[in-house]
Amino acid sequence: MTDAQWLELLSRHIPDRYEHLVRYVGWYSNRVRSQRAANDAHAPMAQDQTEPEVADRAKAAWARLIQKVYEVDPLECPKCGGPMRVIAVIDDASVIERVGARTLTTTRPIGD
Fold it and tell me: Is residue 15, in this structure, part of any structural domain at all?
C-alpha cells in the first residue's frame, strides 16, 4: 500500500464540515436512554442502604484515629464515661470562634 492510498483510506474517516461525528450505540443510544428513563420514572424510589453503612464506618474510623493519636476516646463522656454521639459539625469560622470563646470563659480546669 502506498502512502497516497493509505492517506485516501484515512481521509474517508474524516467527517465533512458540520457533520455529526459522535455516534452512540448500545447503552448510550437515544433509544436505550429513553427506555431507561421511562423505566426509572415508573420504578419506585429505592432507599440507598449503603450510605448509612459508609457513614457508620467513617464515624468509627474518625473516632479510632482520634483515640489512637490523643489516647482519648472522643465519643466517651469525660464526666460519666457514657457513650456520646456527634450531633453537629461546625465548619463556619465565626461560629467556631464564638463557641471557643464561650467555652474558654466558662470551663474550669480538669480536676477542680
Answer: yes
